[in-house]
Amino acid sequence: MSVEWSTVRTERTVLAIVHNTTAATRLFDILPLFATDPRVQTIFTCPGSSAFTNGTHEYLAKAGIDVLPWAEALERPADLAIAASYGGDLHKVKAPLMVVPHGMGYNKYLDSEGRSGVFGLSADWLTHEGRVVPSVVVLSHEEQLERLTAACPEAREVALVAGDPCFDRMLASLPLREAYRQALGVDPGTKLIVISSTWGGESLLGNDLQLAQRLATSLDMDAYRIAVALHPNISAHHSSWQVRMWLDHCRRAGVLALPEERFWCQALVAADLTLGDHGSVSFYSAALGTPVILVSAPAEAVAPDSPIARLLAVAPRLTEDPVRQIEEVIAGHDPLRTAAITSCTTSLPGTSGTVLSETIYRHLGLDPVRADLRVLPVPEVEIPEPRAHLARVEFRRGEAVVTRFPADSLREPRRAPDRTHLVVDVRETSARLLDNADIVVHHHPRDPESWISAQLRSLPGCALALARGQDGWFAGTDDGGLVRFDGLTGPADAFASALYQLPVGAIPGSLRVRVGGRPHQARVTVLRTARRAAPRPSPPHAESRTG
What we know:
There is one protein chain. By secondary structure, the protein is α/β, with parallel strands linked by helices. Strands 15-16-22-23-21-20-19-18-17 form a nine-stranded mixed β-barrel. The longest helix has 13 residues, at about 350-365. The N and C termini lie far apart (about 65 Å).
């Protein structure tokens, strides 16, 4: 970047060293402290030393960032360099170097590049030929200073306890919790479960790739929403395409797979419970006061005196009956039980930005510019909804209690809920599910009544077809009946499921259903009387019918 071609004549240059996508996300919490200052030019480079460099350049390019080749960056003087990781030839950088954590402090062991020990605290990672490389080692809590002093005493004089800017943003965003919940598809009364996995074979995903899909098909889909937050290193190694394919059945079951580098913070603020492992996300969730259940807890992967090790020692492990355990853990949670541990998240709650800004501008030799703490943006994501589900109907005190489960459970018949019937939307792509549907749903037919007749003729095993019209929903049965639902306050297919279980003579003028614990009602008009008089028995689920 030649000065002679510059439009804005800046006074200082900051070199942002981006090891991988994970490090980039943490740098983006810090760079806004000075990025809007016209006196400062920020240049980005990638050392290429990380095993998870893949995807980093593409991630930066989406943000409109050009990456200076590492060799050129080493030759270019700067006033300050900032990194959110270690590795590579950082000792060759021609600028004072500030290194910040890219997670909840420093907890994990890492053996790489011939270095070992606690990543970010051991002498192997902090020194080169006996000299401490960073000019500033940023720590989030005083307890890290104690461990740093024990592991690399020569680095103590450059250590700065500056709090945690990422956690500060989560705390500042707590008033937006309901906005995040609605953006993530969480209805009133619904519980949000975040499934979080760090990277590596000992992680949650490495231990149980099918957990999200299995849990989604076991839980009432109207009482729970599941979001999966994966460490960016997973896609960096396996590729984003491959991870999407592995999670395809999760999406079909209504699980929201968050973009690896975005929205996990908002999900934690919105969550009612987190299923996790030894990664930072699980600890952040506990620090926000949310109950945490560990699916993987490899104590040997973290320093025994670290906060995460202490959390692993006391947090409950996932049991063989996760549905009951989830209900009990949420109901009985008391954040005070782990408060002594989670208080190690930050020594300076809410003020990390101020401390970091003052330090950065002091190294730049400029008067600081005030940068307000930024709340997390409301996510914009496409909410996946199952296009086929199993419905169980139980009549209690004049209302139909409808419990719905994603039909993906039919992939493992022994896990499929009993006493259910199969409801399939015409947008479902599985021929097997369509062929075995008890109820078929169409949201946008051109002619509802003609579609209902044709659909029931084409699927001999289908008992009811539900179609949306301009003036209500129409439900036709295989024995000639036709009704219209008006004034629905809940999902139309739930009313269809209730109708499916009713005898013809018992169809009321008003139908009440309860879905996900929430009551709904609709007016019912019989347009054509069916020939059937007896109630329809609950069928076995589709998989057992087809073998």
